[in-house]
Structures are given as C-alpha cells and as structure tokens.
Amino acid sequence: MLLCSTLLLAVGFGALSGVLGGVITDPTLVSNHTYDYIIVGGGLTGLTVAGRLTENPNIQVLVIEAGNDDRTNPVVYDIYRYGDAFGTKLDWSYPADQGRSILAGKTLGGSSSINGAAWTRGLKQQYDSWLQLLDPADANSGWDWNGMFSYMKKAESFTPPNSGQLAKGANSISSYHGFTGPVHAAFPLYGLSSKLMYGGPQEPAFASVMVKFGLVKYKDLNGGTPNCVSFTPDSNGRAFVVNQPRGLGSPVILRVAYLSPVESQRKGWTTLVGQQVTKILFNPSTALPRVATGVQFGTSSGKRFTALARKEVILAAGAIGSPKVLQLSGIGDAAALSSLGIQSVVNLPTVGKNLQEQTLSALGAGGTNFNVGGSGPSDVIAYPNLYQLFGSQASAMVNHITQSISAWASSQAKSALSASALQTIFGIQANLIIQDNAPVAELFQVTNYPDKLGTIIWPLLPFSRGTVQITSSNPFVPPKTTVNYFSVDFDLSTQIAAARMVRRSFQTSPLSGLSTGETVPGFSTVPDDANHGSDANWTKWIKSQFSSVAHPIATCAMMSRSLGGVVDARLRVYDTQNVRVVDASIMPLQISAHLSSTLYGIAEKAADIIKSGL
Ligand SMILES: Cc1cc2nc3c(=O)[nH]c(=O)nc-3n(C[C@H](O)[C@H](O)[C@H](O)COP(=O)(O)OP(=O)(O)OC[C@H]3O[C@@H](n4cnc5c(N)ncnc54)[C@H](O)[C@@H]3O)c2cc1C
Ligand SMILES: *[C@@H]1O[C@H](CO)[C@@H](O)[C@H](O)[C@H]1NC(C)=O
Ligand SMILES: *[C@@H]1O[C@H](CO)[C@@H](O)[C@H](O)[C@H]1NC(C)=O
C-alpha cells in the first residue's frame, strides 16, 4: 500500500535532496539532512502540527516517532479491540508511584491510536483561566474559550446523529461542532442505521437517575457546558470501521487523521518511525536565548544519528516524553542535571513539575435479563459539579477547600515552583470549582464493564501535583514519574463521593429495575450504610484498585515564568529562541473533559502561531 511507494520514493530521491515525503523506517535517509522543522513525536499533537505546516509545499518537516507505523493493526483501528494495546510494545506504560503505570501510545498517532475515542470538551471558564496564568501582556493571545473553540472545531468533522441514533438518545447542536476538519466524530455506528449504538434501557436509565440527582440533561455538551449528563460522540472513526465515511477509502486511514489522507501528496512531510529522539542539539554559544540546531536520535541497540533544523525543534512527545527530552538536552533543574553529568543549557527547574493526573475506579452491578441493544461503544457521561456530587456535605467541602488552599500549596510546593505560585494557581482552580460549577468528577456509564451495568469514575480536577524527572543520562531509561496520587485529601474525597453516587444510582429507579445488585466493589468489600459506605471502607477499596486515567498534563506548563511556566503564550520554552512544546504538557490545569479534542485545538493553534513566525 502507501508504504511501498513511499519507500521507493525515499530510495529514489532522498539521499540527493534531503526531502523524502512519506513514512519511512531507515534512519540513514534523513541523517545529516536539514529540515525547516523537526517535530519530536508523531502522536496526536505532533501529526496535527505537521499536517498544517506542510500545507505549504515549500516547507520541509521531519517528524521522528519512537513507535512503529501500526495503522494496519486492528488493535489500533478497531474500537472493539480497545485495551488490547495496553502493556504491549504499542504502549510506553510509564512506571509511576504507588505501583501504578501511565498508559501512553508508542506508535504512529501516539495515544490517539490506542485511546477510547470519547469526544468531549471542557468548561468555557477553564479555557479562559489559561489567560489568567499568563503574563498580562498576553491578554490578546487567544488562549481562552473563544480562541480554543474555533480551533477545536477546525480539527473536527462531525456527523450529526441519524434518525436511528436519535431514537436511541443521541443528539447534537450543530453550532457546537466543526464539519470540515480531519478528525471525524460521530455516534456509533455512522451510516449503519445506527445498528450498533446501544439501544437498550441501560443508558437512558442512567441518564434519568442522574437527572434525579440534580444534573440537567443536555442535548450536547461540546459547547463549553459540560456540567450535565449527556450522550457523547466518539472521535477518529475508530468506531466506524465497517462503514467508511466520506469515501476516504481504507478504515485504517481514519485513525491517524492528519497524516493518512494526505500522505502521498505531501512531499515536504517525512515521518521517520522506530527511532527515538535522545536529545535536542544547541548552538554552542551560551548566550540566551539558546538556539537549537537539530536533534540526535537512535534506538537502544543501534547507533545515534543527527538531523538538522533550519527553523525550529518542536516537542510533541507527550506530557511524560517532552519534559524527559528537555531534561536530557540540558533544560531543567541545572543542579539535578549536573548530578547526572548533563550540562545545563537553560536552568529551568520547573520542567517536569506541576504534573496533574487522575485516578480511575470502576463500579459494577449485575443486570436483569434486558437486551443491551447493540455493541457500543458506550455513550453516556455525567459530569456533576461539587454541589451535585457532595450534596448536603457541599458547603462543608467549600469551606474546607477555601481554608486549605494555603496548606495544600505548601504541601505540593516541591512539585511546583513555589508555595506562593501554587497558592495563586490553586486559587484559580478553586474558583472554577466553587464559583463556576466546573464538574469535579466524571461518571461514564459503561455497558458490560466491570459487570453488565458499569460506571467508571475519576476526579477531574485533582489538587495533587507530581513530577517527571530523569534519573539517568541514558535516554532509554524511563523517567521517574511521581503523581503523588491522593496527596491532597480533596482528591480522595471526590473519588469517594463519586463512588457513593454510583452506588446510589444502582439503587435508584429506573436503573434499580435493571440491576440485580452491586457486585464491584459489592457490600462485602464496602459495607452499605446510611452514608452509602464509610470513608474508611471506600478509601481502602479505592487505594487497593485504582488505576491511572492516562491524562497526564502540565509538565511544561504554559504559564508566566513567575508561576513556574515552562513555555510562554507562543509555546516557546523560556530562554530558547526556537524550541516549542505543543502537546498535553503545556495545559496548565486539567479540564472537565477527555483531552483529545482540546489537544487537537491546541495543536491547530500552535501551527498557526508557528506559521505566523511569532
Ligand atoms: C489508554 C488511553 C485512553 C484515552 N482515552 C481517551 C478518550 O477516550 N478520549 C480522549 O479525548 N482522550 C483520551 N485519551 C487521551 C488522549 O489520547 C491523549 O491525551 C493525547 O493523545 C495526548 O496527545 P499528545 O500529542 O500530547 O501525546 P501522544 O498522542 O501520546 O503522542 C506522543 C508521541 O510521542 C512519541 N514519543 C515520545 N517520546 C519520544 C521520543 N523521545 N522520540 C520520538 N518520539 C517520542 C510517542 O511514542 C507518541 O507517539 C486517552 C489516552 C490513553 C493513553
Ligand atoms: C553524518 O555526518 C557525520 C559527520 O560528518 C558522519 O560521521 C556520519 O557518517 C554521517 N552519517 C550518515 C548516516 O551519513
Ligand atoms: C469497614 O470499616 C470498618 C471500620 O470503619 C472496619 O471495622 C471493617 O473491617 C471494614 N470492612 C471491610 C470489609 O473492610
């Protein structure tokens, strides 16, 4: 297929011109060649930026991806194989604290090639808060909801639900969506008379119970208003392999949406797979800002190569991969790097700090003999705010947050710049929760996991802060990743409150009519009582079984330097002239959503910033 012609092309012209095009595996074809831009990581954001930059045929872009091109592997393109990539060579499984690991795609497309495809966006005010964390001089930089909404829509090609899907509960508001972008989003299963979208009673029953619990049911949550219960679409066409939308050809191309459809036309876009970037190379002049000249790359067993960048080096290696590459390159805490024998290029101690990751638990109940009415994926998500989640305890929780901000900031300061900066950031986060009703937990109704009736939960806005820090100058040693799960009590309280809400949901009509009783964790593990389980019993169960959600962010946060930012509003690493970060690591705070739609928007905006030469 595409790969064969690409290789021929590469062999034919590559060595002469330095411009190859296509997806290649031979590092000698790009070694010592010069490109305008080198992008580190061919994941969600890296391919998005490359796709936009190479719209100009005079621009030459090299993407270097550590994983392989697995687009023809059903584990990548078939949504019903979700989970099968975990723990395989397609997954970094970055080791973290408390025995957990953080899943992340190590394959062309990155985590977007192994993700769950849920397509949601956060609360309007959460994007607006990004501006508050930047310098006042950046007030017009467009890092707010209005700016981000148009870029999120630019990435999207939405198919509204058809009559069959509408009958099953799907809905949409067309002004909340884009219709011409590369990333297809729709309800399952596009074009098949909605044959496979769940049509049984379980999803509507869950939504009805959430309405009884005080949530509003919205037609569509993708317009900056996630505080509701709603049917939500899926991205990437992962769910759509049977029917190919828009005549794009093979289902395989749907997964890597910015590359596959244009792959054979973009002669200026070369993607080298199976090679890991080991460091960024800098001009030896030590004057600030430092100037990157290219990157070094290789494999753990093979030799090292160099590729040169005429204009910029752009990091898109993900929230664990990007701080790692910066630290290996001498950008980070100079003292910590010098102890590893790495010479400081920019002393920027907050590289790898401010890590924010969430914690997942799955609850289940046996089901009566009802027909689930399809094969999914599951569609209904509830996003309660603090008042809805904590009910009669909410005002006590508001007081607790307000009174604890300063103590929490001190306790987490080692994972950020300083307690005073963190106090400012926590103040903004608290305000979003208390004033703006930002959803604090996700309750995702899942059919047949972990039992016939299932709901997976996670706190959306943890105050715990962690770190990503290399412990070796060997780039093939994973960095030490410490999330400090539940190190702020609010995070655990939120997880417990969400678990209680799910337990109550199984006991509330109409869901109770479909349930034969809670099985996970079940009353023998967490005895039921007037409180729907004691704090002690829930704590014990949650800590014994939670997993990492795989939504790490903020390790190269876009914030003012005084707050501990790593990149400015132009996504440029402080004190460098031409190193940018465009991936999940620049998000300064979590949002009440799955991350992918927001990250496509960030990368779309990044591409425009880079094109404009700012
Ligand atoms: C299991 C899972 C389920 C998810 N489910 C959803 C969901 O349902 N909905 C949703 O919206 N979001 C979901 N997400 C989140 C979303 O997919 C990620 O947040 C997003 O893909 C991150 O984009 P990124 O560009 O920052 O990183 P990635 O997409 O992970 O890309 C980083 C790329 O860089 C490569 N790389 C790393 N280091 C190097 C190096 N040194 N040299 C070369 N290459 C390197 C990696 O191999 C990878 O390809 C999920 C994520 C995971 C892991
Ligand atoms: C790249 O250049 C270096 C230095 O000139 C040289 O030693 C090396 O062999 C070259 N590598 C390739 C693959 O051409
Ligand atoms: C529940 O917690 C109580 C103390 O609050 C404890 O005595 C009991 O053993 C716990 N039950 C389980 C099943 O862990």
TrEMBL record:
FAD binds at residue 277. Keywords: FAD, Flavoprotein, Oxidoreductase, Signal. Its cofactor is FAD. One of its GO terms (molecular function) is flavin adenine dinucleotide binding. The keyword Signal applies. The active site is at residues 551, 594. Residues 1-21 form the signal peptide. Residues 105-128, 318-332 form the Glucose-methanol-choline oxidoreductase N-terminal domain. Belongs to the GMC oxidoreductase family. This is GMC oxidoreductase.
